[in-house]
Structure formats: structure tokens, C-alpha cells
Amino acid sequence: MSYSIKQISDTSYILSHLGERKAILTKTDSGISAIGNLQTKKFSDWQDLEKHLGSIPVYETEAEESVVEVTQISGYPVKHSPVYDVSDNPVSYSKVAGSKTRFAAGYYCIRFEAGWVPAFCPKLSTLTGVDTLGPFTTKLEMTNALTNIKNKPTV
Questions:
Q1: For the whole model, what pTM was predicted?
Q2: CA distances from 119 to 69, 94, 101, 135 (A)
Q3: 3-state class of 12 per DSSP?
Q4: Same domain membership, residue 59 and residue 29
Q5: pLDDT band of 145, cuts 50, 70, 90
Q6: How many Cα atoms occupy the beta-carbon half-sphere of 113 within 13 Å?
């Protein structure tokens, strides 16, 4: 059934199914309470929960948490984590190892036919063949540049 349980505190756990969070579990002296998308909200013990799920969930351990959560590349923020296949020219990454789809790190202003729009970590393919400003390290810098370009008088 592909359930997993990840401990987030001494008495709290996240129950996921196929990568989607289903419930927060809280262990107390009287059993296990579930808050979220489960029909039953109270279980007498872990075996009762496993019986309800129809399978034994995988209990995630710290060893499985060895992937480093990246929040920026070369000073530019990224919206996916973890990141793979990092490149510095241009500063980009893929969100799956070996993927051909690449994302530009940072904030951008992109001009489409309808006008200038803000973007955070757009696909690199989106940036080809259009006018762009960026990358910017903060949303504020990008918003300022977007305001300036929109208010710039046309000749």
C-alpha cells in the first residue's frame, strides 16, 4: 500500500501514502490519534493502525534523511529541493537526477507578448527567445526591476 511514517517529535508523526501526506499522528498513553484524511481517528496502538491501513508502513529513519536540503545555488534561491545536476552558467538545476528539464535559479522578469511578468525559478526553456531581466536574489529586487521596466517611457 506504500504507506510511510516519519517521526517529527517525540510523540508526533506524519503518515504519508505514495508521497502524499495523509495525517498527523499523535501517540498518547491512551493510543494513537489521527488528524487528517483517515476514516478512523483513534487507534489503540501501532498494530491497530497497521490493521486499518491494510499494510505495515515503512518507518523513515534519519539515515534516509541524508539528502541535503538546498535553498540556494550561487546565492540565487531555488524552489525545489533537493536539486540535481547544478550548473553555474547559467545558474540552473534539475529537480530529478538526469532530467533534461532544467530550472533557472533566482527571480526573473520575463516579457511575453502580453507584457512583463514575474517568475521564480522558471524553466530554462521559458527564458529562451524572450526578453528577460535577472536573475535576482530576492523577490524585492525582481519586483523593483519589474516596476521600473513597466513604468519606463516607450520611445
A1: 0.56
A2: 22, 17, 17, 10
A3: strand
A4: yes
A5: very high
A6: 0
pLDDT at 19 over 80: no
The x, y and z cell numbers of residue 129, run together, are 527567445
Q: Does residue 88 share a domain with residue 50?
A: no
In sequence order, the 6+-apart residues with CB closer than 8 A to the CB of 61 are none
Closest CA to 96 of 83, 108, 109: 83
Residue 84 shares a structural domain with residue 137: yes
Who contacts 15 (Cβ-Cβ below 8 Å, separation ≥6)? 3, 4, 5, 21, 22, 23, 24, 25, 34, 36, 38, 57
Domain that holds residue 100: 72-151
Q: What is the DSSP letter of 64?
A: G
